[in-house]
Amino acid sequence: MFEARLVQGNLLKKVLDAIKELLNEASWDCADSGIQLQAMDNSHVSLVSVNLRAEGFDKYRCDRNLIMGMDLTSMSKILKCAANDDIITMKAQDNADTVTFIFESPSQEKVSDYEMKLMNLDQDHLGIPETDYACVIKLPSGEFARICRDLSNFGESIVIACTKEGVKFSAAGDIGTGNIKLAQTANVDKEEDAVIIEMQEPVTLTFACRYLNMFTKATPLSPQVSLSMSPDVPLVVEYSIGDIGLIQYFLAPKIDDNDS
């Protein structure tokens, strides 16, 4: 038997909004320790990893490991039926071919349940290597979303350059160039408003705007985002999911043709 109950049900809705543009379908791996999802996006350019810890749920039970293959578009449609303050429970039998979503209003006066068919998906579990990154930039997630949106007007790629002076985002295209520089903030009242840079060595990498803009769909989940970069390895864009887990997006840098 698998059962996971989340009083803050809207977190689950936000997680789906954060991944459904990148993934059509994916397997949720349910185990004793929590729920994980790892999948390459539809065009096999980026990797999405979601981790929800068992202790983050208000009630969590998973008697044996269970892999639930889901059509994320369908799951998103079902979650849209839940109000933002609904309590959401996911339930499935051990070898079930369906999963049930139960939505309860806080007053318990309305309870709805929806059953969804599960899919058999062949998905390889992708090992994500532990990497020490040359620089890790933490900044307000709304600020990052805005930078990606603004710069995508200029070109298809965003160059992220991290030095001890700060971090610079730039884009160039037919209409001209755009540069946005953020210095490390010295003193802010709220930690989530801060720009914090931990750097071993300066790094400059180029990434596709289209993907960065899709990653920023996770902005409502967390006030802060962290970007981890090293030469020649994928960028990691990480958002925490309330206090129950985190979502990470991995995106390989664009290689400049002139260097080869």
List the helices and strands and how they pair.
Layout: E1 2-6, H1 10-19, E2 25-31, E3 34-40, E4 46-53, E5 59-62, E6 66-71, H2 72-80, E7 87-92, E8 98-104, E9 111-117, E10 135-140, H3 141-151, E11 157-163, E12 166-173, E13 176-183, E14 196-199, E15 203-208, H4 209-215, E16 224-229, E17 235-241, E18 245-251
Antiparallel strand pairs: 1-5, 1-7, 2-3, 2-6, 3-4, 4-18, 7-8, 8-9, 10-14, 10-16, 11-12, 11-15, 12-13, 16-17, 17-18
Helix pairs in contact: 1-2
Report on this structure.
The chain has 260 residues and is mostly beta strands. The chain is 14% helix and 45% strand. It has a 9-stranded antiparallel beta sheet with strand order 6-2-3-4-18-17-16-10-14. Strands 5-1-7-8-9 form a 5-stranded antiparallel beta sheet, with helices on one face. The protein has a 4-stranded antiparallel beta sheet with strand order 13-12-11-15. A hairpin with a 5-residue loop joins β7 and β8. Belongs to the PCNA family. Homotrimer. Forms a complex with activator 1 heteropentamer in the presence of ATP. This is DNA sliding clamp PCNA. Residues 1-124 form the Proliferating cell nuclear antigen PCNA N-terminal domain.
